[in-house]
Each structure stands twice: as C-alpha cells, then as structure tokens.
Design a protein that fits this description.
4-stranded antiparallel beta sheet; mainly beta; single chain; elongated; 3-stranded antiparallel beta sheet; 117 residues
Length: 117
Amino acid sequence: FVLAAGRVARLGASKAAERGKAFRCAACGQQTFVGARVDLGCRVDPPVACEAVRRGGSAGKGWACGCTEFSAVEGVAPMMDYQELRLQDLTMPATGKSPGSMAVVLTEDLVGTVAPG
C-alpha cells in the first residue's frame, strides 16, 4: 500500500494485460510462471535460468538445471485490468520550474476510479 497526494495530470485508457505467462525449459521441461512487470508496461520476460533440480550423481544429490532456453507455454494467460496515470505535485517550485511528477500504475479494482484534475 502506498499513499501519494497530487493532481492527476494525465490519465491513460484502461487496458487488459497479461498477469503473467508460463515458460517451459528446453532442457528439462520444467514449467515456470513469471508475473508481469507493471512498472515496465506489463511486460513478461522469460526466466534468466531454469531453477529445476535434477536428481542423480554418485552421492544421490541433485543439481540445478541452469538452462537458459525457454519457450512460452501456449494457452489462456490470466488477465488483469491496467491503467497508467501521471501524478503531479500540488506545490509549485519557488524557482518557476514546473512541478514534479511521477508515473503511477493502477491495476485490478483501482482501474477507472480516478479522473484528471
């Protein structure tokens, strides 16, 4: 939970975005679900390396797969509502510069709850 005060200077349209995506390791077939990065426009990047543990070895201990090749698992991805806005500082700087602003991302039930101004 984050609390911020300001004026909504710009409000983007509400969109549907993937909540995340499943990826399959090319070496061992392990599936990994990766959540969307809302701070990067709901982008879903594949995992960096497979974290599946393979069994074997002389001592019976496992080792990490470590494969870096993945393919997206086809199917219906879970979706979420998504909306971007620009929040502007309420106070004007004394030097005559424009007020500071920050990007804010609304998801799920917060989408559509704000208006510019």
